[in-house]
Amino acid sequence: MTLASIRQAPKAVLHDHLDGGLRPATVLELAEDCGYDQLPATDAEALAHWFREAADSGSLERYLETFAHTVAVMQTPEGLRRVARECALDLAADGVVYAEVRFAPEQHLERDLTLDEVVEHTLAGFREGERLAAEAGTPIRVTCLLTAMRHAARSREIAELTVRFRDRGVGGFDIAGAEAGYPPSRHLDAFEYMRANCAQFTIHAGEAFGLPSIHEALAFCGCDRLGHGVRITDDIFDSDTAEPTLGLVANYVRDKRIPLELCPSSNVQTGAVPALDKHPFDLLARLRFRVTVNTDNRLMSDTDMSREMLKLVETFGYGWSDLERFTINAMKSAFIPFPDRLRIIDEVIKPGYAVLIG
């Protein structure tokens, strides 16, 4: 199993940040177009290296500082459309057939765009990318998730924005940003609004902060998925034995089939886990949690879905059947209608892996 062969496998990604996946050359060109002069490097290779090095700090807060530069060049209609278009194309070229890409509209208002305009231009870019990818023979479906920043106070407004665009390409809602000091319950009004409107949402929880964050996201907020959720292992005991013991929260997550949006490379970079071979992905997979493989931020982690899968293969010895299971886990958990999920699984993912498995 090689990187080239894994690129041929159909993939589904649920946790990919739009402002964390720009092409370095695009950052430079958009910065020049909009007059942004704060970039730390002036050529694409050096800029890519800077993003990776800055993100490797082992601190979530330091990791998040890198986004100041990408968000700064995504303040115009042209910038938003281009970044969304290239995002769809880059994912499709990597073999991704279904993607959920999230971003925070409230961070893109510096050039006097409205929240609705920010979403409209971004969705237009995704549709352009889908069209070009289909023409290139690498079809992809992209669903947009709208994120509210947990340190701000606009989550209800962003939840309403999500519902307003639910039939135009927006599939769900999320909160993101530094966890410590900003618990999910701080945004309870937004989550109650989403539930009242039968709308789906995920919550960044259990990444930098432990089990209380996960418990709040589930018990108080009622999330459909957990963004990262890697710290669910705080509620798994005797994990080095043949029969680990699960606490109440871990049992609930497994029994209810709450999807875990695990991001291996990113989790190491932010210090959520010390090293890839210490990542609980394999433990959770063996215990039959609904684990999914995700990129988080392709620019900051210098990664894509194929490389994330290859790292898991090399670290834990997975085969094609394992990668197929993780992919189907993701597709089952997607924020699109059930018939659409089933069609992609039956008509795209399973046939694609059947060829690879032989």
TrEMBL record:
Q: Where does Zn(2+) bind?
A: 15, 17, 204, 296
The terms describing its cellular component in GO are: cytosol
Instruction: From the record, give the transmembrane residue ranges.
Output: none
Keyword set for this entry? Hydrolase, Metal-binding, Nucleotide metabolism, Zinc
| Cofactor descriptive note | Binds 1 zinc ion per subunit.
Record-annotated site: Important for catalytic activity: 228
Keyword Glycoprotein listed = no
Cofactor(s) needed for function: Zn(2+)
Q: Which residues form the Adenosine deaminase domain?
A: 10-350
**E.C. code:** 3.5.4.4
Which molecular-function annotations from GO does this UniProt entry contain? 2'-deoxyadenosine deaminase activity; adenosine deaminase activity; zinc ion binding
Pfam families in alphabetical order: A_deaminase
PANTHER family attached to this UniProt entry:
ADENOSINE DEAMINASE
> What family does this belong to?
Belongs to the metallo-dependent hydrolases superfamily. Adenosine and AMP deaminases family. Adenosine deaminase subfamily.
Please give the function described in this protein's UniProt entry.
Catalyzes the hydrolytic deamination of adenosine and 2-deoxyadenosine.
Q: What is this protein called?
A: Adenosine deaminase
Source organism phylogeny: Bacteria, Bacillati, Actinomycetota, Actinomycetes, Mycobacteriales
